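Pair request: fold both.
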Amino acid sequence: MPIEVSIPADSSRSGVRGPVAARSAVFASFLAASIATFLGPLRNLLTVSIAGEEYSYILLAPVMVLGLFYMERRNIFRDLKYSLCPGTLIILGGLSIAAAAVISAQLKADSRLSLEILGFVTICLGSFVLCYGTGASGAGLFALLFSVLLVPLPEMVMAKPIALIQHGSADVTGALFTLTGVPAFREGVTFSLPRLSFVVATECSGIHSSIALFIASILAGYFYFKPGWERPLLVLLVFPIISFTNGLRMFILATLAIYVDMSFFTGNLHHRGGSLFFALALVILAGVIKLLRGRWRLRSAASCRATESAQM
Protein backbone atom coordinates (compact mmCIF):
# COMPACT_ATOMS: atom_id res chain seq x y z
CA MET A 1 0.00 0.00 0.00
CA PRO A 2 1.53 3.40 -0.96
CA ILE A 3 2.87 5.39 1.98
CA GLU A 4 1.90 9.01 1.61
CA VAL A 5 2.84 11.67 4.13
CA SER A 6 0.65 14.75 3.86
CA ILE A 7 1.74 18.19 4.96
CA PRO A 8 -1.29 20.41 5.65
CA ALA A 9 -1.41 23.55 3.57
CA ASP A 10 -3.55 26.56 4.38
CA SER A 11 -3.96 29.77 2.48
CA SER A 12 -1.14 31.49 4.34
CA ARG A 13 2.22 32.07 2.79
CA SER A 14 4.04 29.78 5.24
CA GLY A 15 1.47 27.02 4.77
CA VAL A 16 1.64 26.96 1.01
CA ARG A 17 4.98 28.21 -0.20
CA GLY A 18 6.97 26.62 2.62
CA PRO A 19 6.09 22.97 1.80
CA VAL A 20 6.42 23.57 -1.95
CA ALA A 21 9.86 25.12 -1.49
CA ALA A 22 10.99 22.25 0.73
CA ARG A 23 9.77 19.62 -1.72
CA SER A 24 11.33 21.47 -4.63
CA ALA A 25 14.66 21.58 -2.80
CA VAL A 26 14.53 17.81 -2.23
CA PHE A 27 13.52 17.19 -5.84
CA ALA A 28 16.31 19.49 -7.08
CA SER A 29 18.78 17.46 -5.01
CA PHE A 30 17.55 14.21 -6.57
CA LEU A 31 17.73 15.79 -10.02
CA ALA A 32 21.25 17.13 -9.50
CA ALA A 33 22.45 13.74 -8.23
CA SER A 34 20.87 12.01 -11.24
CA ILE A 35 22.50 14.42 -13.69
CA ALA A 36 25.88 13.94 -12.03
CA THR A 37 25.49 10.16 -12.17
CA PHE A 38 24.44 10.13 -15.83
CA LEU A 39 26.72 12.95 -16.98
CA GLY A 40 28.47 10.74 -19.56
CA PRO A 41 25.29 9.45 -21.23
CA LEU A 42 23.80 12.96 -21.18
CA ARG A 43 26.86 14.30 -22.99
CA ASN A 44 26.49 11.55 -25.58
CA LEU A 45 22.81 12.42 -25.91
CA LEU A 46 23.68 16.07 -26.55
CA THR A 47 26.21 15.03 -29.20
CA VAL A 48 23.69 12.76 -30.93
CA SER A 49 20.99 15.44 -30.80
CA ILE A 50 23.25 18.00 -32.47
CA ALA A 51 24.80 15.66 -35.04
CA GLY A 52 21.77 13.57 -36.05
CA GLU A 53 18.82 15.25 -37.76
CA GLU A 54 16.44 12.53 -36.60
CA TYR A 55 17.25 13.35 -32.95
CA SER A 56 17.28 17.15 -33.11
CA TYR A 57 13.85 17.29 -31.44
CA ILE A 58 15.47 16.07 -28.19
CA LEU A 59 17.00 19.52 -27.70
CA LEU A 60 13.48 20.97 -27.45
CA ALA A 61 11.99 18.18 -25.33
CA PRO A 62 13.00 19.65 -21.92
CA VAL A 63 11.61 23.05 -22.93
CA MET A 64 8.29 21.49 -23.96
CA VAL A 65 8.09 19.48 -20.71
CA LEU A 66 8.74 22.61 -18.62
CA GLY A 67 6.16 24.48 -20.66
CA LEU A 68 3.55 21.79 -20.02
CA PHE A 69 4.31 21.86 -16.29
CA TYR A 70 3.98 25.64 -16.24
CA MET A 71 0.63 25.54 -18.04
CA GLU A 72 -0.75 22.87 -15.69
CA ARG A 73 0.96 24.12 -12.52
CA ARG A 74 -2.29 24.99 -10.70
CA ASN A 75 -3.64 21.46 -11.03
CA ILE A 76 -0.32 19.67 -10.53
CA PHE A 77 0.76 21.43 -7.35
CA ARG A 78 -2.66 21.69 -5.74
CA ASP A 79 -2.40 18.64 -3.46
CA LEU A 80 1.13 17.66 -2.40
CA LYS A 81 2.09 14.51 -0.51
CA TYR A 82 5.30 12.57 -0.16
CA SER A 83 4.78 9.17 -1.79
CA LEU A 84 7.71 7.17 -0.52
CA CYS A 85 6.96 3.65 -1.72
CA PRO A 86 5.79 4.41 -5.30
CA GLY A 87 8.58 6.92 -5.84
CA THR A 88 11.27 4.60 -4.45
CA LEU A 89 10.07 1.68 -6.58
CA ILE A 90 10.16 3.79 -9.74
CA ILE A 91 13.66 5.04 -8.88
CA LEU A 92 14.84 1.46 -8.31
CA GLY A 93 13.32 0.53 -11.67
CA GLY A 94 15.30 3.31 -13.34
CA LEU A 95 18.50 2.16 -11.65
CA SER A 96 17.84 -1.39 -12.85
CA ILE A 97 17.38 -0.20 -16.44
CA ALA A 98 20.61 1.80 -16.31
CA ALA A 99 22.46 -1.13 -14.72
CA ALA A 100 21.23 -3.44 -17.48
CA ALA A 101 22.64 -1.03 -20.06
CA VAL A 102 26.03 -1.02 -18.35
CA ILE A 103 26.22 -4.76 -17.71
CA SER A 104 25.08 -5.98 -21.14
CA ALA A 105 28.12 -6.29 -23.37
CA GLN A 106 26.23 -7.20 -26.56
CA LEU A 107 24.28 -3.97 -26.88
CA LYS A 108 25.09 -1.59 -29.70
CA ALA A 109 26.12 1.93 -28.77
CA ASP A 110 22.76 3.46 -29.73
CA SER A 111 20.77 0.82 -27.83
CA ARG A 112 22.96 1.29 -24.75
CA LEU A 113 22.44 5.05 -24.87
CA SER A 114 18.67 4.57 -25.18
CA LEU A 115 18.59 2.36 -22.07
CA GLU A 116 20.84 4.71 -20.11
CA ILE A 117 18.68 7.74 -20.88
CA LEU A 118 15.51 5.73 -20.22
CA GLY A 119 16.96 4.85 -16.81
CA PHE A 120 17.76 8.52 -16.19
CA VAL A 121 14.27 9.68 -17.16
CA THR A 122 12.67 6.94 -15.04
CA ILE A 123 14.71 8.00 -11.99
CA CYS A 124 13.64 11.62 -12.53
CA LEU A 125 10.00 10.56 -12.76
CA GLY A 126 10.34 8.50 -9.59
CA SER A 127 11.91 11.45 -7.80
CA PHE A 128 8.96 13.62 -8.79
CA VAL A 129 6.47 11.03 -7.51
CA LEU A 130 8.40 10.69 -4.25
CA CYS A 131 8.63 14.44 -3.61
CA TYR A 132 5.24 15.66 -4.84
CA GLY A 133 3.01 12.61 -4.50
CA THR A 134 0.82 10.42 -6.66
CA GLY A 135 -1.92 13.07 -6.81
CA ALA A 136 0.39 15.66 -8.34
CA SER A 137 1.88 12.99 -10.61
CA GLY A 138 -1.57 12.00 -11.83
CA ALA A 139 -2.47 15.62 -12.56
CA GLY A 140 0.81 16.08 -14.44
CA LEU A 141 0.86 12.64 -16.04
CA PHE A 142 0.90 13.97 -19.60
CA ALA A 143 3.86 16.26 -18.93
CA LEU A 144 5.70 13.49 -17.09
CA LEU A 145 5.21 10.97 -19.88
CA PHE A 146 6.13 13.61 -22.44
CA SER A 147 9.62 13.57 -20.93
CA VAL A 148 10.09 10.12 -22.47
CA LEU A 149 10.83 12.01 -25.70
CA LEU A 150 14.28 12.56 -24.23
CA VAL A 151 15.01 8.89 -24.90
CA PRO A 152 16.59 8.44 -28.36
CA LEU A 153 15.14 5.49 -30.21
CA PRO A 154 17.82 3.02 -31.39
CA GLU A 155 18.41 2.52 -35.08
CA MET A 156 16.66 -0.85 -35.19
CA VAL A 157 13.48 0.75 -33.82
CA MET A 158 13.67 3.82 -36.07
CA ALA A 159 14.17 1.62 -39.15
CA LYS A 160 10.59 0.28 -39.13
CA PRO A 161 8.67 3.60 -39.22
CA ILE A 162 11.22 5.00 -41.69
CA ALA A 163 10.66 2.04 -44.02
CA LEU A 164 6.89 2.41 -43.63
CA ILE A 165 6.99 6.08 -44.65
CA GLN A 166 9.50 5.32 -47.43
CA HIS A 167 7.24 2.76 -49.09
CA GLY A 168 4.14 4.85 -48.40
CA SER A 169 5.77 7.82 -50.12
CA ALA A 170 6.67 5.61 -53.09
CA ASP A 171 3.06 4.42 -53.32
CA VAL A 172 1.80 8.01 -53.40
CA THR A 173 4.40 8.99 -56.00
CA GLY A 174 3.46 6.05 -58.22
CA ALA A 175 -0.25 6.79 -57.88
CA LEU A 176 0.28 10.43 -58.89
CA PHE A 177 2.30 9.37 -61.93
CA THR A 178 -0.55 7.03 -62.95
CA LEU A 179 -3.28 9.63 -62.37
CA THR A 180 -1.49 12.32 -64.37
CA GLY A 181 -0.35 10.03 -67.17
CA VAL A 182 3.36 10.64 -66.59
CA PRO A 183 5.24 7.66 -68.09
CA ALA A 184 7.03 5.94 -65.21
CA PHE A 185 8.20 2.43 -64.47
CA ARG A 186 8.33 1.44 -60.83
CA GLU A 187 10.31 -1.35 -59.24
CA GLY A 188 9.99 -1.25 -55.45
CA VAL A 189 11.01 2.26 -54.44
CA THR A 190 12.89 2.92 -57.70
CA PHE A 191 11.28 4.92 -60.51
CA SER A 192 12.43 5.16 -64.12
CA LEU A 193 11.15 8.11 -66.19
CA PRO A 194 12.25 9.62 -69.48
CA ARG A 195 15.76 11.05 -68.87
CA LEU A 196 15.47 10.44 -65.14
CA SER A 197 15.71 7.57 -62.66
CA PHE A 198 15.49 8.04 -58.92
CA VAL A 199 15.05 6.12 -55.70
CA VAL A 200 12.77 7.12 -52.84
CA ALA A 201 15.57 6.58 -50.34
CA THR A 202 15.38 6.51 -46.58
CA GLU A 203 16.77 10.05 -46.62
CA CYS A 204 13.61 11.04 -48.49
CA SER A 205 11.35 9.57 -45.82
CA GLY A 206 11.29 12.90 -43.99
CA ILE A 207 11.96 11.39 -40.58
CA HIS A 208 12.62 14.86 -39.11
CA SER A 209 9.25 16.13 -40.36
CA SER A 210 7.59 12.91 -39.27
CA ILE A 211 8.81 13.24 -35.69
CA ALA A 212 7.85 16.93 -35.59
CA LEU A 213 4.36 16.12 -36.87
CA PHE A 214 4.13 13.19 -34.44
CA ILE A 215 4.87 15.52 -31.51
CA ALA A 216 2.42 18.10 -32.86
CA SER A 217 -0.31 15.45 -33.10
CA ILE A 218 0.27 14.38 -29.48
CA LEU A 219 0.07 17.96 -28.23
CA ALA A 220 -2.98 18.74 -30.37
CA GLY A 221 -4.75 15.62 -29.12
CA TYR A 222 -4.08 16.60 -25.52
CA PHE A 223 -5.19 20.22 -25.82
CA TYR A 224 -8.14 19.83 -28.20
CA PHE A 225 -9.73 16.51 -27.21
CA LYS A 226 -10.73 14.68 -24.08
CA PRO A 227 -9.38 11.14 -23.61
CA GLY A 228 -10.91 9.01 -26.35
CA TRP A 229 -10.37 7.64 -29.83
CA GLU A 230 -9.55 11.04 -31.35
CA ARG A 231 -6.14 11.24 -29.68
CA PRO A 232 -4.69 7.95 -31.00
CA LEU A 233 -6.31 8.61 -34.37
CA LEU A 234 -4.36 11.87 -34.74
CA VAL A 235 -1.11 10.03 -34.01
CA LEU A 236 -1.90 7.25 -36.48
CA LEU A 237 -2.72 9.79 -39.21
CA VAL A 238 0.85 11.11 -39.09
CA PHE A 239 2.06 8.25 -41.30
CA PRO A 240 -0.40 8.72 -44.19
CA ILE A 241 -0.09 12.52 -44.03
CA ILE A 242 3.72 12.44 -44.22
CA SER A 243 3.59 9.73 -46.91
CA PHE A 244 1.28 11.92 -48.97
CA THR A 245 3.35 15.10 -48.66
CA ASN A 246 6.62 13.23 -49.32
CA GLY A 247 5.12 11.47 -52.34
CA LEU A 248 3.73 14.76 -53.64
CA ARG A 249 7.14 16.34 -53.24
CA MET A 250 8.89 13.58 -55.23
CA PHE A 251 6.20 13.73 -57.92
CA ILE A 252 6.52 17.52 -58.33
CA LEU A 253 10.32 17.38 -58.43
CA ALA A 254 10.38 14.57 -60.98
CA THR A 255 7.72 16.17 -63.17
CA LEU A 256 9.48 19.54 -63.18
CA ALA A 257 12.77 17.80 -63.96
CA ILE A 258 11.58 15.91 -67.03
CA TYR A 259 9.26 18.57 -68.44
CA VAL A 260 10.93 21.86 -67.44
CA ASP A 261 14.54 21.61 -66.28
CA MET A 262 16.61 18.78 -64.79
CA SER A 263 18.09 21.18 -62.26
CA PHE A 264 14.82 21.11 -60.30
CA PHE A 265 15.69 17.62 -59.09
CA THR A 266 19.01 18.71 -57.64
CA GLY A 267 18.33 22.36 -56.81
CA ASN A 268 17.03 24.27 -53.82
CA LEU A 269 13.50 22.92 -54.12
CA HIS A 270 14.88 19.44 -53.55
CA HIS A 271 17.27 20.24 -50.72
CA ARG A 272 15.45 23.10 -48.99
CA GLY A 273 11.85 22.68 -50.01
CA GLY A 274 11.03 20.24 -47.22
CA SER A 275 9.73 23.03 -45.00
CA LEU A 276 7.05 23.90 -47.58
CA PHE A 277 5.71 20.37 -47.63
CA PHE A 278 5.93 20.11 -43.86
CA ALA A 279 3.77 23.24 -43.70
CA LEU A 280 1.32 21.45 -45.99
CA ALA A 281 1.35 18.48 -43.60
CA LEU A 282 0.53 20.82 -40.71
CA VAL A 283 -2.36 22.32 -42.71
CA ILE A 284 -3.74 18.83 -43.38
CA LEU A 285 -3.40 17.92 -39.68
CA ALA A 286 -5.17 21.16 -38.71
CA GLY A 287 -7.99 20.30 -41.13
CA VAL A 288 -8.37 16.86 -39.58
CA ILE A 289 -8.47 18.42 -36.10
CA LYS A 290 -11.17 20.85 -37.22
CA LEU A 291 -13.27 18.03 -38.66
CA LEU A 292 -12.89 15.91 -35.54
CA ARG A 293 -13.73 18.84 -33.27
CA GLY A 294 -16.84 19.54 -35.31
CA ARG A 295 -17.87 15.90 -34.97
CA TRP A 296 -17.07 16.02 -31.25
CA ARG A 297 -19.22 19.15 -30.74
CA LEU A 298 -22.13 17.54 -32.57
CA ARG A 299 -21.80 14.42 -30.44
CA SER A 300 -21.64 16.48 -27.23
CA ALA A 301 -24.70 18.52 -28.26
CA ALA A 302 -26.63 15.35 -29.06
CA SER A 303 -25.65 13.90 -25.70
CA CYS A 304 -26.81 17.04 -23.89
CA ARG A 305 -30.16 16.99 -25.71
CA ALA A 306 -30.63 13.33 -24.86
CA THR A 307 -29.89 14.05 -21.19
CA GLU A 308 -32.32 16.97 -21.11
CA SER A 309 -35.03 14.84 -22.73
CA ALA A 310 -34.50 12.07 -20.20
CA GLN A 311 -34.85 14.55 -17.33
CA MET A 312 -38.13 16.00 -18.60
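--- second member of the pair ---
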Amino acid sequence: MRDIPHIVSAEAVIPGVLKLVWDDDFAGVVDLRPIIVRDKTFDFLQNATNFEKVKISEYGRTLGWTNEDGQLIDFGSVSLRQRAERQAELHMQAG
Protein backbone atom coordinates (compact mmCIF):
# COMPACT_ATOMS: atom_id res chain seq x y z
CA MET A 1 0.00 0.00 0.00
CA ARG A 2 1.25 3.46 -0.89
CA ASP A 3 2.01 5.80 1.97
CA ILE A 4 -0.46 8.58 2.60
CA PRO A 5 0.96 11.84 1.22
CA HIS A 6 1.27 14.51 3.89
CA ILE A 7 0.53 18.15 3.14
CA VAL A 8 3.41 20.41 4.19
CA SER A 9 2.19 23.72 2.77
CA ALA A 10 -1.22 25.23 1.97
CA GLU A 11 -1.85 28.70 0.61
CA ALA A 12 -5.05 30.32 -0.62
CA VAL A 13 -4.38 31.58 -4.15
CA ILE A 14 -7.82 33.08 -4.68
CA PRO A 15 -11.06 32.39 -2.80
CA GLY A 16 -11.83 28.70 -3.26
CA VAL A 17 -8.46 27.75 -4.74
CA LEU A 18 -5.47 26.38 -2.81
CA LYS A 19 -1.84 25.83 -3.75
CA LEU A 20 -0.65 22.73 -1.91
CA VAL A 21 2.71 21.04 -1.46
CA TRP A 22 3.09 17.46 -0.22
CA ASP A 23 6.01 15.80 1.55
CA ASP A 24 7.18 14.17 -1.69
CA ASP A 25 7.63 17.67 -3.22
CA PHE A 26 4.56 17.37 -5.45
CA ALA A 27 2.93 20.79 -5.72
CA GLY A 28 -0.49 21.39 -7.17
CA VAL A 29 -3.43 23.72 -7.31
CA VAL A 30 -6.81 22.50 -6.09
CA ASP A 31 -9.99 24.32 -7.08
CA LEU A 32 -12.59 23.71 -4.37
CA ARG A 33 -15.09 26.25 -5.72
CA PRO A 34 -17.45 23.65 -7.24
CA ILE A 35 -17.72 21.92 -3.86
CA ILE A 36 -17.99 25.13 -1.85
CA VAL A 37 -20.93 26.51 -3.85
CA ARG A 38 -22.77 23.17 -4.07
CA ASP A 39 -23.11 22.35 -0.36
CA LYS A 40 -24.36 24.58 2.48
CA THR A 41 -21.81 22.89 4.77
CA PHE A 42 -19.18 25.03 3.05
CA ASP A 43 -20.97 28.43 3.21
CA PHE A 44 -18.29 29.60 5.68
CA LEU A 45 -15.64 29.14 2.98
CA GLN A 46 -17.44 31.38 0.49
CA ASN A 47 -16.07 34.34 2.48
CA ALA A 48 -12.54 35.08 1.17
CA THR A 49 -11.22 36.08 4.60
CA ASN A 50 -12.43 32.81 6.10
CA PHE A 51 -11.00 30.75 3.23
CA GLU A 52 -7.54 32.29 3.74
CA LYS A 53 -7.44 30.92 7.30
CA VAL A 54 -6.73 27.37 6.12
CA LYS A 55 -4.72 25.26 8.57
CA ILE A 56 -2.84 22.01 8.06
CA SER A 57 -3.46 19.32 10.66
CA GLU A 58 -0.62 18.28 12.95
CA TYR A 59 0.42 15.33 10.78
CA GLY A 60 -0.48 16.85 7.41
CA ARG A 61 -3.14 14.26 6.64
CA THR A 62 -5.90 16.85 6.49
CA LEU A 63 -6.33 20.57 6.15
CA GLY A 64 -9.27 22.62 7.21
CA TRP A 65 -11.00 25.52 8.80
CA THR A 66 -13.01 26.05 11.99
CA ASN A 67 -16.27 27.89 11.31
CA GLU A 68 -17.96 30.45 13.54
CA ASP A 69 -19.83 27.64 15.36
CA GLY A 70 -16.56 25.88 16.20
CA GLN A 71 -17.19 23.09 13.69
CA LEU A 72 -14.30 21.71 11.68
CA ILE A 73 -14.51 21.77 7.89
CA ASP A 74 -11.76 19.55 6.55
CA PHE A 75 -10.46 17.75 3.48
CA GLY A 76 -8.17 14.73 3.44
CA SER A 77 -4.69 14.75 1.95
CA VAL A 78 -5.40 11.81 -0.35
CA SER A 79 -8.55 13.30 -1.88
CA LEU A 80 -6.85 16.68 -2.32
CA ARG A 81 -3.88 15.01 -3.99
CA GLN A 82 -6.18 13.17 -6.38
CA ARG A 83 -7.95 16.44 -7.23
CA ALA A 84 -4.64 18.24 -7.76
CA GLU A 85 -3.37 15.51 -10.09
CA ARG A 86 -6.65 15.37 -12.02
CA GLN A 87 -6.84 19.15 -12.36
CA ALA A 88 -3.20 19.32 -13.51
CA GLU A 89 -3.91 16.65 -16.12
CA LEU A 90 -6.96 18.55 -17.41
CA HIS A 91 -4.91 21.74 -17.58
CA MET A 92 -2.21 19.98 -19.60
CA GLN A 93 -4.80 18.59 -22.03
CA ALA A 94 -6.38 22.02 -22.51
CA GLY A 95 -3.03 23.74 -23.04
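Observation on the second member. The beta strands are 7-14, 17-22, 27-31, 55-56, 62-66, 72-76.
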